[in-house]
Amino acid sequence: MMPQGQHTQTIVVGVDGSPTAAAALSWAVEEAARRGCPVRAVTAAPQDAPGYFVEGIAEQIDTVGRHRPGVALSHVYRTGAPGKVLVADAADAAMLVVGSHGVGRIVSVLLGSVTAYCVRFAGCPVVVVPNTMAVRETATAPMAEPALPGPLL
């Protein structure tokens, strides 16, 4: 067990299939390449999420991962409230990376509700990748350039 306050070098990123999540994933993978650390992509959704939802996210992760084969990229799927799941999963992370808006229905003026929850409750640094950095064509398209600089720390 790690002493309280210490973090692993893993970067945790929230992915939900949205273009903003794709931008957050790309940013996290680029940052991991610079740091030489792994990335854990976390998807949180209801247990009865449709299969195409899960498959689309897996394709998004595979696409981004192919552009940085030297980065260890894993994906976990958890059931539960996305904010709580991400905060719990990032408890031992170097940082948590989230997009400013996801696919949820309730969105605050500046941040999505999940993002706001993560910023408020995460025990590690949170990087918020702004909507302006989102992949615009499709949620699975790789970013042509690294998503730098830009996120709020």
Automatic annotation (TrEMBL):
Pfam families: Usp. Residues 9-130 form the UspA domain. InterPro entries: Rossmann-like_a/b/a_fold, Universal_stress_UspA, UspA. SUPFAM superfamilies: Adenine nucleotide alpha hydrolases-like. Belongs to the universal stress protein A family. This is Nucleotide-binding universal stress protein, UspA family. It comes from Actinokineospora alba. The lineage of its organism: Bacteria, Bacillati, Actinomycetota, Actinomycetes, Pseudonocardiales.
